[in-house]
Design goal:
Layout (H helix, E strand, L loop, with lengths): L1 E2 L6 H9 L17 E6 L5 E6 L14 H14 L3 E6 L6 H9 L7 E6 L21 E3 L8 H11 L16 E6 L6 H9 L17 E7 L2 E7 L12 H15 L3 E7 L6 H12 L3 E7 L10 H12 L8 E3 L11 H12 L5 H14 L12 E8 L4 E6 L7 H15 L7 E6 L11
Parallel strand pairs: 1-4, 4-5, 5-6, 7-9, 7-10, 10-11, 11-12, 14-15
Antiparallel strand pairs: 2-3, 8-9, 13-14
Length: about 450
């Protein structure tokens, strides 16, 4: 949306971006009173809604009799906006009203770009630097009337409009959830499949490697469809010698790629092994939701705090899956297996969810205020904007002054901030770092 004091060229910019003379323009302040909306298409077909607002007036003697109503309309639009173009008059310099509006927008700074208009006027271009005092990280000098600099502004807008191709259609409520049961050999994967489907679908044997193919079984529970995929046990590469077994492992890896959620099985009688962590890592690498199932817990007697100690050990070995819930089950007897489906439903709801851009930016701003990101090549890293690219898993673009990868510890910190804010249990959060294309103007030396 476009905001600013009266007569700075908001409607001219609106018409320029919309590619049509939609808004009335005149030197007389207050020409725009109601909010104007136009759906604008970018060159690649992506679309966004552009909103023009009336001029924001402050002080005791507003120029327009409708100043109060115009301001109320603009404030309502601000609350709904995903991105704000704050327009100022480069020829007039920084005025008190600009500072008042800047103060109002301070809480929305992460999603605001300062647009210095009318730089084609005499001495305006040289005065652009003084607008840095308003405190916004993004500053774009333009002439809305003649189109100078508007390509840069469109580039900036294009970076915060989610790619059309990555937007997903509404989820088919009848589409089944693909659930892969994974683990090293002989941890009870086939027994769990049989328990979940209530039939002897897979051959169960103490001989490791009994399952060779990935077996799909479709079931319906409480009106929801699931495709349960039993996979071959995944061994370490050095332990896989038989050609058929190698193909079985490849099949298991492909099954992980096509699932929505992986049930990572661990044998309680063996404890947590390095291979358990390797198998779990395949699910994380594929960006899948995950749940940890400790099987055969009833095979031995346990002290009251044994389960807590075992979980702590699992968490230590699989720190990368700290977000995955853990359940102790017995695939053989069915103990606590009934908890699996409700947990899958809860996890998948988060895995496929889309979030409001405004919410993402609020979380990002709070996270950065609490803990600044590490410097990049001796310069502070800044984040300007966040938007969701896709779901399954939630993938968020972070627009920064650098496209250098995030330090792993800060990435994990941001993942936890977003996961905690949205309650994303069992769901990985992915980030895509995007540097702004030439939008950053270096601040003048002080």
């Amino acid at each position: 949306m476009i905001v600013g004091r009266p007569n700075v060229g908001k409607s001219t910019l609106f018409n320029r971006l919309a590619g049509k003379r939609r808004a009335l323009t005149h030197d007389l302040p207050g020409m725009t009173r109601d909010r104007l909306r136009e759906v604008v298409s970018l060159d690649d077909g992506r679309r966004y809604e552009l909103t023009d607002t009336g001029g924001l007036e402050y002080g005791e003697t507003p120029m327009s009799a409708f100043a109060g109503e115009i301001k109320a309309q603009a404030e309502k639009a601000l609350a709904e906006a995903d991105f704000i173009l704050f327009v100022v008059d480069g020829a007039a310099g920084v005025l008190t009203e600009d500072r008042d509006i800047a103060q109002q927008l301070r809480g929305e700074a992460s999603k605001t770009a300062l647009v210095v208009n009318k730089i084609d006027r005499k001495d305006a271009e040289s005065a652009v630097n003084e607008f840095w005092e308003l405190g916004f990280e993004r500053l774009v000098p333009i002439s809305a009337e003649h189109g100078t600099g508007t390509d840069d502004l469109i580039d900036l807008i294009s970076e915060v409009v989610p790619p059309e191709a990555e937007e997903e259609p509404e989820e088919d409520p009848n589409a089944p959830v693909h659930v892969a049961i994974i683990g090293r050999p002989n941890v009870g994967k086939s027994s769990l499949l049989n328990r979940l489907t209530n039939e002897e679908r897979s051959v169960v044997s103490p001989i490791s490697g009994t399952t060779r193919d990935a077996i799909d079984e479709e079931i319906t529970r409480n009106g929801r469809r699931y495709i349960i995929i039993d996979t071959a046990g995944i061994r370490r590469k050095g332990k896989t010698t038989d050609e058929a077994e190698k193909l079985a492992v490849i099949s298991a890896r492909k099954a992980i790629e096509r699932c929505d959620i992986a049930l990572v099985m661990i044998d309680a009688t063996d404890g947590v092994t390095a291979q358990d962590a390797t198998v779990a890592g395949y699910a994380e690498d594929a960006g899948k939701a995950a749940m940890l199932l400790v099987n055969k817990w009833d095979a031995a007697q346990h002290e009251p705090d044994d389960a807590k100690k075992f979980e702590e050990h699992v968490r230590f070995k699989m720190k990368f899956l700290s977000y995955a819930p853990l359940e102790f089950v017995s695939a053989k007897t069915g103990r606590r297996v009934e908890k699996v489906f409700p947990k899958i439903d809860s996890i998948i709801a988060s895995y496929r969810k889309r979030f409001k851009t405004s919410e993402l930016n609020q979380i990002l701003e709070r996270a950065v205020q609490a803990h600044n990101p590490p410097v990049v090549r001796g310069k502070p890293r800044r984040f300007y904007y966040a938007t969701q690219l896709k779901a399954g898993p939630p993938t968020i673009a972070l627009f920064s002054n650098s496209d250098e990868p995030l330090h792993f510890s800060y990435r994990r910190y941001l993942e936890n901030q977003f996961r905690e804010a949205f309650g994303l249990e069992g769901v990985p959060v992915h980030f895509v770092i995007r540097a702004r294309k030439g939008m950053k103007r270096d601040r003048p030396p002080r």
